[in-house]
Amino acid sequence: MPVIRKLLENDKSVRISVTGNSMYPFLRENKDSVELITCSFPEIRAGDIILIQRDDSAYVLHRVIFKKKEYVYINGDAQRSLEGPIRKDQILAKVTTVWRKGAEIPVNNILWKTLSFLWFCMLPFRKTIIFRYHKFRSLQRRYSI
Description:
Blueprint: H1 2-9, E1 14-17, E2 32-37, E3 49-53, E4 59-67, E5 71-75, E6 83-87, E7 91-100, E8 103-106, H2 110-121, H3 126-143
Antiparallel strand pairs: 1-2, 2-7, 3-4, 3-7, 4-5, 5-6, 7-8
């Protein structure tokens, strides 16, 4: 991360691989990568995916759920609880593009934004939806459906 931070501080965009499953289904571990750019706090909007550094020094890539004057609250797409307040000095960058299977997906794409919003609305049901999806995929593989 020190190299990534240095590049971002020099206004360079950085492409990193996604690790972890907290942003599933929008970002998939070992399948997706994201492009990060620095941004000012006023540029951040609800729905943006940002890279932050927690007070314990851990780095996290999560979605902004809502923004106040001096901080934001974030949430992983596979999670149900909010994290925050996240101070503006903890925000390092935001995602501009996702790459999946060689395809470039701009996060300002209307379809991406619509699906992100709908997924946000499903916050109370996410755990059940993901569980049922994995069960279905398991049955599908087992019985070659």
